[in-house]
Amino acid sequence: MVFNPSDRCKIVSETFPAFTLCDSPLLFVNKFKYLGHIIDHSFSDDSDINRDIRTLFTRTNVLCRRMLTSCES
Questions:
Q1: Beta-carbon neighbour count of residue 60 at 10 Å?
Q2: The dihedral formed by the CA atoms of 51, 52, 54 and 58, expressed in degrees to the nearest 10
Q3: pLDDT for 8-58, tens place per residue?
Q4: Could you tell me the pTM of the whole model?
Q5: SS (H, E, C) 20-65
Q6: Cα–Cα–Cα angle for 36, 6, 25, nearest 5°?
Q7: Which residues are CB-contacts of 31 (< 8 A; sequence separation ≥ 6)?
Q8: Residues contacting residue 2 through CB under 8 Å, at least 6 positions apart
Q9: Can you tell me the distance from the alpha carbon of 28 to that of 7, in angstroms, rounded to the nearest whole number?
Q10: For residue 48, which of 66, 60, 36 has the smallest C-alpha distance?
């Protein structure tokens, strides 16, 4: 992942040479997961917040489904 500086005039290059590890090229990514949090190239945590919201909705739906099933019995 390449982090661009906040000041556009300090950008050294738009392209970088291919980094290799054991003669295999390493790919550049826009976001990755580190210690359970999603980090993207713009330093925003929107992806991580969206993941947390989806998880919250999923857990809420499971809880509602269990409560409705137990009430019907």
A1: 10
A2: 140
A3: 677 777 677 788 889 888 887 888 888 888 888 777 778 888 888 999 999
A4: 0.53
A5: EECCEECCCCCEEEECCEEEECCCCCHHHHHHHHHHHHHHHHHHHH
A6: 55
A7: 1, 38, 39, 40, 41, 47
A8: 16, 28, 41
A9: 21
A10: 36
The residue assigned the tokens 């509602």 is 64
Q: Half-sphere exposure of residue 25, counting CA atoms within 13 Å on the CB side?
A: 6
Question: Is 60 exceeded by the pLDDT of residue 1?
Answer: no
Model confidence band, residue 68 (pLDDT cutoffs 50, 70, 90): confident
Q: What percent of the chain has pLDDT over 70?
A: 84
**Number of neighbours of residue 8 by Cβ within 10 angstroms:** 7
